Amino acid sequence: MSRRYDSSKGPEGKRVKNRLHRKFKTDRPNQKLVSDVTEFKVPGTGEKVYLEPIMDLYNNEIIAYALDTQPNLTFTLRPLKQLFKKLPKLSYRTTIHTDQGWQYRHRTWRKILKKHHVFQSMSRRATCLDNAAMESFFNNLK
Fold first, then answer.
1. Where are the domains of the chain?
2. pTM for this one?
3. Which residues of 37-63 are buried (b: 16+ CB within 10 A; e: fewer)?
4. Is the domain defined by 32-141 classed in CATH 3.30.420.10?
5. Over the stretch 74-112, which tens digit does the pLDDT of each residue have?
6. Sign of the torsion angle spanned by Cα atoms 99, 12, 65, 94
């Protein structure tokens, strides 16, 4: 029996408030970012691969991503580390918005954001419209 990926299952971590409030527009690059993990089934193999992109809401560009067969913490941190290697010094704060998946509540994820002075924002529980920009990207991709 094959189960669908559920990012809410995993080690408990800190939840944070929704700072984005479905305001997906911005006139500044790297001000509002969104991310999530999605699962793809590889046809004819029964295997699965996982994608985690980080999208800039300024122009809906994917600015970092990871693709892997395991949705573990190392996989989730790769796009974040890519992002901070190329994120320029800004005169305004960056906010990254995600769902409440275990990886985004994890101490390591939060510590990296804090180190780079990035605000964290999370969707409310079971409210996919709070991250509609990323969900729409996944829908178009699939």
1. 32-141
2. 0.86
3. bbeeeeeeeeeeebbbbbbbbbeeeeb
4. yes
5. 999 999 999 999 999 999 999 999 999 999 999 999 999
6. positive
